[in-house]
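Task: sequence in, structure out. Protein: Glycosyl transferase family 1 domain-containing protein.
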Amino acid sequence: MVQNKKIKMAIFVPWLKSKGGVERVILKFLEDKRYQTDVFTFFYDKNQTFDEFNKYNINVLGNAKLSGFVTRGFNLFKSLILAKIPNLKSYDIFIISTAGISEIITFRNKHQRTVAMCHTPLRVAHTMYNYYKKESIKNRIILPFAVSVYKILERLAWKRIDYSIVFSEEVRNRLVSYHLIDNKKIFNLGPYAKYPKINKTSKTEKIIFYPSRFIKYKRQELAINAFKMSELPKHGFKLVLGGFAEDKEYFKEIKKLGSANIIVKDNLSEKELTDLYKKCYVTLFLAINEDTGYTPLESLAYRKPVIAVNEGGPKEFIKNEENGLLVNADEKSIANALNSVLNRKFYTKLVEGAKKSKVYDEKRFIMNLDDTVNEIMQKPYK
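Result:
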């Protein structure tokens, strides 16, 4: 690294409340012994996120309320405008974990090395604007004005960002196409997935596994309807949907669709998640225009083919008819893809492709992370 002492790093993340890709990446920063890292957040739920966070310095700023979608957005915006991170200038680098809106914290918290760790620009203002606008009358009234105002603030906030870290070319392209930051100031670390020790004696069972948070844009209902339409139930297959119930009402709706061969589980333990990955036949991933898509990468790490919608980040990692299948986001296309794995020869080909997929493991991620931080640290203060 550029200096012998540890690099002192401040990371802001709006909330730590689940076991998702964002939380996994934050942990990688905390675990890296080259850095002295403090995390600042508005909301920290120790019971819902990874236990490993308990070992580190998590500073809660105020008390943000996580109510409905629109209300939550306004509460977060207010908190970001008012928040002041203590002693920010004492840190060597300031990293903002953002999926849109968090960069507004720079209005009162400017650092000489401000880095946006961008999972995506705000989806409701860009890629999923029409989706959310259709959701309710309230959204149809509020969103057009709110998004117009937000885009002005978004441009102003990004002018205060010196560099950006992303995890996929999909997100890099979004930042550039929205004219938020120059392409030369973006560092793509690539994603990170956990690679297990594969027991060759592990038995594959007739399980189609969809591991993902329960929230509407993950489209678990589409998985259920496609599975019912397919031939798989006749051949003894089960569909298992498992993940954190982020949208409680949506989870209740999905839970009602469960049956003897459609199993819906929330708050899976790490052991349950690992066991399902090991046992499953293939995995599904049907989220709308996903930014990067850590679930498909985890599936490939377990040598499991992935059936994913042909949208967003997963297109970078899923090679159609090689290590998985890319399909249209409709029941018939997904059902046909499910039926295709009944062909033993074709299924074996997909499994072999999954085994040969590009590796995005911890070692590669840490190396890219350290190289990026090192390069940023060598650049002069703005």
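The mean pLDDT is 89.
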